[in-house]
Amino acid sequence: xxxxxxxxxxxxxxxxxxxxxxxxxxxxxxxxxxxxxxxxxxxxxxxxxxxxxxxxxxxxxxxxxxxxxxxxxxxxxxxxxxxxxxxxxxxxxxx
Length: 95
Known about the structure:
Blueprint: H1 2-18, H2 25-46, H3 55-65, H4 67-94
Helix pairs in contact: 1-2
């Protein structure tokens, strides 16, 4: 996972320092994401633990342990969307 992150950031640095004029900065995130995921998936398949717990059980345990945090983040997300929507309508109303 860390190797994927480092590879993605490294590619972004190369795009910035060497190809700034040729590649729009909007593509840096997409390219960096693809490189990060690709490296993480490839290395994850090579270096996997001998015994893995089923992903469903692990996921539900994590969700239950952090349910309050996830709920708070979801509430903030909804609040930000509602405020953005309201500001958009307020701007139309004022003009």
